[in-house]
């Protein structure tokens, strides 16, 4: 308890210093206190970091200080990094590797790294996130083709764009060629210098750029297995895994992705698809190759790597049965597939969704078998708890993207 109290006092002492010496005039006291008391973030934190309960204490004391704060300094009291410096101790992650289901434990790629960071760093990142989103929204910066991590948009919206584009081609007796690109470790390979350049290009306020630059640089991590830590390793590229700011920074990084008038691009974070339509097979591949050529140059310039082996192409058509012309990406042949999975939905070349529905049924039946002892008639759980299990475990399987494929059932 004494340690917790001392940490809280140290934190408040830093707040008071920033109150009278900080230069970040864009953040309000109310925003700080709201983020201190926010309970919605359940992302993992370091066990040794300041407990969440103490943040409410800090918020209460800060609120008591409010009447004594001179008007000119009211907007200076913000998170610890407010002077444009994100503390290095907050940039050291403790990484716990979690084995992916059904994967070989002897292979490093079979593990999913979970980063644990101090809880106070998350508050600062939320404040940065709020101001960065406000700048993007107020100035209408993000391209409309980007649906990832944006308010009011979801995977279903992007899937609807793709499906409606293809169905319009069906009605006009046109064929649609689509290339679904696989970007290698997109978030982990973001070029920091390039990202800062793009932040400047979209007129991001200088204080935010300074803070984001500090947030990205001098990051490190140590892997923790059985309570034993490895030596610290530096991170020279990428946006931090699990951070609330990372998706927004990635959206900014890819915001100038090339577009053409003869094709359509659909982007959801790093899930990218390009589509082209025509009555002639040769024109479809010509339009796609034209767009691909621009993308290849752009990927090379901004140090983004494509996994050609995992990139898939599908030729959607109701009336053409012959094989379309060959498609190439980075001088590698990309074969035409009969179907592909995009944003969790299997799209077959005739958009029947039969494969997707079969997969949903299989997944639903497996999940029912797992929870059946809990929801069966003889279960001792209350009806309310049984309904809760259904709503949390079973219903999402049936409902995900149902506006896209649901009509195929009738």
Automatic annotation (TrEMBL):
User: Which keywords does UniProt give here?
Assistant: Nucleotidyltransferase, RNA-directed DNA polymerase, Transferase
Q: In terms of domain of life, where is this protein from?
A: Eukaryota
**Under what name is this protein listed?**
RNA-directed DNA polymerase from mobile element jockey
Q: Which Pfam families match?
A: RVT_1
Gene it is expressed from: pol
Reverse transcriptase domain: which residues?
Answer: 79-347
Q: Does the keyword Transferase apply?
A: yes
The record's GO molecular-function terms, alphabetically, read: RNA-directed DNA polymerase activity
Q: Where do transmembrane segments lie in this chain?
A: none
Q: Which CDD domains match?
A: RT_nLTR_like (cd01650)
Question: Sorted alphabetically, which PANTHER family does this protein's record hold?
Answer: ENDO/EXONUCLEASE/PHOSPHATASE DOMAIN-CONTAINING PROTEIN, ENDONUCLEASE_EXONUCLEASE_PHOSPHATASE DOMAIN-CONTAINING PROTEIN
